[in-house]
Amino acid sequence: MSEPVYILGIETSCDETGCAVVADGREVLSNTVATQIDLHARFGGIVPEIASRAHIEAINTVIETALRDSPVGSGQIDAIAVTNEPGLIGSLLVGLMAAKTAALVWSAPLIAVNHIYAHAYAPALNDDPIEYPAAALICSGGHTALYRLESPTELELLGATIDDAAGEAFDKVASILRLGYPGGPAIDAAARHADPRAVDFPRPLLKGESLDFSFSGLKTAVLYHVNGVPGAIRGARSQAPSKRGIESFSPQEVADIAASFQAAVVDVLRIKLRRAAKLTGAKTLILGGGVSANSALRSAAGELADELHCSLRLPQLQFCLDNAAMIAGLGYHYFRAGRFADLDLEARPTVRR
Ligand code: KG4
Ligand code: ZN
What we know:
Blueprint: E1 6-11, E2 16-23, E3 27-35, H1 37-41, H2 48-69, E4 79-85, H3 89-105, E5 110-114, H4 115-121, E6 134-139, E7 144-151, E8 154-160, H5 166-176, H6 183-191, H7 216-227, H8 251-280, E9 284-288, H9 295-308, E10 311-313, H10 317-320, H11 325-337
Parallel strand pairs: 1-4, 4-5, 6-9, 9-10
Antiparallel strand pairs: 1-2, 2-3, 6-7, 7-8
The structure holds 5'-O-[(R)-(carboxyoxy)(hydroxy)phosphoryl]adenosine (KG4) and zinc ion.
């Protein structure tokens, strides 16, 4: 039997500093994540300058920890995989610099990995290989996109958000409802004991066969529900509450709004994933990105997979959020294909279609 291939992954595209060592693209030997959530929480969102600075402070320790936690030393690392797109430019650059330095010092080749493609690979970590073709729905704080996958490295973008990402909508609505940051887990928890039919929020972009998403109108609908429609006569719309401002809602009413918002997002995501699966003849449905931790979305996707006779691949919770194991895991497939990057590899902050 041949020796396993050990890839060290580095992830710094947003607000988590991550490093991981993965064997043969599947077995996660170590996975270190330094989260910055506390630093950004008081601003209600990610502040790019604070994120880059925190990555600089954390990156060396995170790499050292990932190596220490894994049974392999730096001398056994076969390649360094790094996220070079998409993400915050300052944040991406920190990981890229660290990866290039490690590649140079350890004489290991460099591999460029797209963060969103890596989310679509996350269900294969510490688990069985994914069966292709697959339809993947990747929802995070920065992205909401549907892909057709022929293999871990062959992806076709089918649709994406035209404004806010799903996770961003969760975060903004949680801020409107004063449920805290990050908003996704807070809304998920609040919605557990609440009525998802309490408010009939819009389900955007469902007409026609579009596979694009739009969540900014839904976010505004929640804002108007809470604060009233600017210039509207009080109580004129049957949906509009007679109250104004979040303080005038009881905790149960706030939870009901959260549950109704979540139900609208999950409906849209489920219907579009269904369209994508039918269009592509997918054998497998994949969920990825931070929002794939959402309990309502996970169960809706499970029902959809049953209906379509597909298998559903969900990442383990630790691999739903940003992490470097998914970068190292997907990096292995580029390693096998001989797709290496030069040391002048650039960061690409925006999504490449
Ligand atoms: O993938 P991720 O860690 O970072 C980005 O690449 O953006 O995703 C973070 C996003 C945040 O917007 C967070 O609110 C959302 O994922 N999120 C959730 C849940 N857990 C995290 N959204 C809905 N329900 C959850 N349980
Ligand atoms: Zn992500």
